[in-house]
Amino acid sequence: MPPKKKKIRKVKYYRADFKIPESTKKRLTGFCKKYDTTANKVFRRALREYLDRNHILYDHHDSRVSANQMSIFDLLES
Predict the structure, then answer these.
(1) How far is 53 from 13, CA to CA, in rounded Å?
(2) Over the range 1-30, which residues count as b (16 or more CB within 10 Å of their CB) and which as e?
(3) Which of 70, 14, 5, 8 has the alpha carbon at shortest distance from 47?
(4) Domain residues for 45?
(5) Do the beta carbons of residue 57 and residue 64 sit within 8 Å?
(6) pTM, whole model, 2 decimals?
């Protein structure tokens, strides 16, 4: 009896629209022709690389306490 096939997880995609100037569109078209790729692949790769480089900045939480906030140790010292 053959083993059961694994169920393939469905990937959810979202639409992202933005505007670029004509000069950038010409440069993008030239780049895509030169490297035999599509504009969507270029956008996805650039976005993925940017987020990989800068993901630490988004997860950073500042744990400094403001000057007017009391500390639990202030109560023990009094």
Answers:
(1) 22
(2) eeeeeeeeeeeeeeeeeeeeeeeeeeeeee
(3) 14
(4) 27-57
(5) no
(6) 0.58
Structural domain total, the chain: 1
Does residue 35 sit within a domain?
yes
Residue 67 is classified by DSSP as: T
CA distance 13 to 25: 24
pLDDT tens across 22-56, in order?
999 999 999 999 999 999 999 999 999 998 888 77
Cα–Cα distance measured from residue 50 to residue 43, given in angstroms and rounded to the nearest whole number: 11
- Give the pLDDT confidence of 11-20 residue by residue, as tens digits: 898 988 989 9
Alpha carbons within 13 angstroms on the beta-carbon side of residue 46 total 7
Q: Is 20 left (phi over 0), alpha (psi -120 to 50) or beta?
A: beta
Whether 19 is covered by a domain: the verdict is: no
